[in-house]
Amino acid sequence: DCRVLSKSQAVFSLVDEKFYLRDNGSSNGTFINNCRLSQTGKKSEETEIYSQDIIRFGFQFETEKTDGGIAKCIIAILQIYFADGTEFPERAVSDKFFRCKEDVCGQEKSNHHQEDIIDQLVNIDTHEHGKENEILKETVANLEKKLKTKQNENINLLEKIANISNDELHRVSEMYHLKEAIECQKLKSIKLEDELSVKLKEHIGNLNAKDLQNELEEKRKALKSTAEEICLLREKSKVEGETMKIKDKEISKLSIY
Q: Are 77 and 54 in contact, with CB atoms under 8 Å apart?
């Protein structure tokens, strides 16, 4: 509900190391050294500004309050400095926007009062910069804490991945040895079957039916025992394979986080 400033009053800009001010079509105007930049409701061109220019937004007028309230304009004396600390040049006397500070501030104001205004503006600027620096320091401290927390989380994640990798290497080694054991048992089974076939052929004429049956039964038992061992080894291999799949999923989830 501001009666002095418009919603979009004016814009400062920096182009090629020069500062500019443009009125955005405000109702009560934007002034440089008491010179209005544009008519009401019309945008102005970008006007170069200099150090020690007096900038004013809007104008002072009495409100409709019964107590004789006054809506005050926004006024400031610009102090522009380069990065090395030297002050930006002041406006040339020949410039159409040049005005003596006495003319801008009013003939009735004394030099002492002008100095007080400048000191007040400097104090306000310093106070605002101090607040901004405190907020900036607090923001940086919070960001550093978040960064440190994130780094600790990453370190813990890398340690977990390393531990899982070691476990996986151990399980892969066990799987390899297990497969070798299965292949060895298969070879033994084949060899046992071959021996059984040869022995049956060699002794078929010498052994009676009962002895042959007994020997065949023993060979079958041996073959059955070997087959059971192979089944157990296959089951163990299957369990190890499923465990490795679960570990792979855990690694994928950790990598995503």
A: yes
CA distance 168 to 160: 12
The one-character DSSP state at 5 is S
DSSP 88: P
User: Cα–Cα–Cα angle for 8, 9, 14, nearest 5°?
Assistant: 100
pLDDT given at position 111: 42
Coil, strand or helix at 229: helix
Question: pTM for this one?
Answer: 0.39
Secondary structure E strands in 72-218? 74-77
Q: Is 32 within 8 Å of 52 (Cβ atoms)?
A: no
Mode of pairing for the β-strands spanning 35-36 and 30-32: antiparallel
List, for residues 117-151, the tens digit of each pLDDT value: 545 554 555 555 567 677 888 888 899 899 999 99
